[in-house]
## 1
Amino acid sequence: MSDSSPEAQFRAALLGLAVGDALGVPVEFQSRAARRLDPVAAMRAYGTHNQPAGTWSDDASLTFCLAQALADGFTVGLTAEYCRRWYYENLWTPHGSVFDIGITTREALNRLQADPDLILAGGTDEYSNGNGALMRILPLAFYQAEAPLAERFQLIREVSAITHGHIRSAVACLLYLEVARHLRAGRPPAAAYAAMREQAPAQLHKLKIPTHETDHFERILSGRLPDVAVTAIDSGGYVLHTLEAALWCLLRHETYAETVLAAVNLGDDTDTTGAVTGGLAGLYYGEAAIPPEWLAVLARRADIEELAARAAAAV
C-alpha cells in the first residue's frame, strides 16, 4: 500500500481507472482468443475506435463526471446533469468528442435530455444490468465513507439509477465499493475481499435485498471466485460478470500492471473490465506503481490530477 492520504488515494484511483480504460480501448470487442494470440502488453494506438494511445472512454469520462459532482457540492441531480453534459456537450471527453457509449446508458441519458426534471433515468428491468453504473461508481468510495450502511446504499442506489435502475446493479456497486473501502484502510486485496465477504451477508439482509438477487452473487460471496479457471470468467458487458472479472484479476496478480493487463487480455468489454479493475488496483498499489510510460501518454492527465485534488478536498 502506498501513500494513504485521501488526495493520493483519489489520484491513484482515478489514474488507475483511466489507464486501465485506455489500455482496453484499442482492443474493445475483440475476443479472448485474439488476445491470447496477441496479448496487450503496453499502451496501443488506434484499433477499435481509431483513437490515439492513452485515450480513455465513457468509463473514465462518467467516473470523472461523478468526481466533479463531488468537487462541486455533491447532489445526485448534479451528477446526472454532468453525465448528460458528457454525452450532449462533450464534458470530460478525452479529445472533445464521445466515441463510445453503452445502450442502456445512452437510453437513460436520452431520457435525461428530454426531461430536465428527471434524475433517476435508468432502466429497471432485469435486462438493464449492463456494467455502466459499476464502471463509474468508484469516487463514492471517498464520499460519506463512514455513514451508516443504509445511507451509503441509498446513495449508491440513486447514483447507479441515473443510468441503471435495477437492484442488481446497485448491489454490484455496493460490493465493489466495500472492497474499495477495505483497500483504502490498508488491507491487501485478499484481506479486503475476505472482509467484504464476511460482512456482506448481514449487510444484504439488513438492506432487505431479496434472496433471489443475492443468489446471483454466490460465486463472489462464497469465496470460490479467486480459484475458478479463467475459462469460467466472463468479460462481457453484464454487471455481475464485470465485477467478478475485476475481483478475479485483483486477487490473482501482485502488481498494478499485471492486474490491469490480465483484465484487458480477457477480451470482449476490455475497456470497462480494465477500468473497473484498474480503479481498485490503482487504489491499492498507488500512483507510483502505474508504469510511467502509460501515464506519460494518458489523455488529460493534468486535468485528472487537478480533479482528484479538488474532489478529495471537497469530501
## 2
Amino acid sequence: MPDISKTKNKTRSRTVATKRNAPRRKPGRPKKDADLRDTILDCAEEVFAEDGYLGSSTRQIALRAGVTQPLIRYYFASKEVLFQEVFRRRGALLAKRRLELLDELVESGSPYGVKEVLRIYLEPQWEIKHDHKGGRSFVRLQARLHSEPERYALQLRREVYDAPVKRYLEVLRPLLPHIPKHILSVRMSFLVGTYLFMLNDLGRIGDFSEGEVTSLGKEEMLAQLVCFLSAGISADLP
C-alpha cells in the first residue's frame, strides 16, 4: 500500500518548485497590460474629443473605460500625460504616413503637380476619419486642439504637423515659383484650417445648396477639396 504522506510531500514539492520557477508579475500590474492601456487610450480619445481637455476629467475616462482613477494614474501619471499620449498615438501615424507618401511620389520618377502633392497630404486624414476603430474621434480631437490652451496644445501641434508640412512646402516651392516662400507658408495654414473644418463635417453644404447636396462621400469630398485647395494655393498674388 503506498505511503500517502510521502505522495503528498512529493506533490507539495513539485507545486513549490513550479511557483518558484514561474515568472513573477510586477505588483499591481494587470495581466492584459497592453489591452487595458489601449482601452484607456480609446476611451480617453472619445472623452477628450467630446469635451476637450479642460472639460474632461479622469473620472469620466475611468467610468467609460471601466477602470479606477488610480489605475489611470498608474499608466499615465496625470490627465495631461494621458492627453498627450492620446494625441501622439494617432498623430505619429498620420505624420509618418504623410512623409511616406511624399517620398514615394518624389522618388517614383513620374511627373507630378500641385494637385498630386496636396492629395497625398490629405489622404491619410481621410483614411483616419473613415477608420471605424476610433478615427472619427481623433479627427474631432484635432479640431479641438486648435482651441485648447497653448500649454496643452502647442507642442503637440508641432510634433504632429511641423515636420510633414515643412517637407511638403519644400516639394511645393519649385512647383509654384511665382509664390514667395513666406506667402506659400501662409497659404498652407489656410489649407490646414479649411480641410480640418470640412473634415469635421462643419460645412453648411446642405444649406448653401438648398438641400440639393446634403453630404459628400469620402472620395467626392477629397476630390473637391483637392481641386479647391490647389487653385487657392496656386493663385496669383493679389
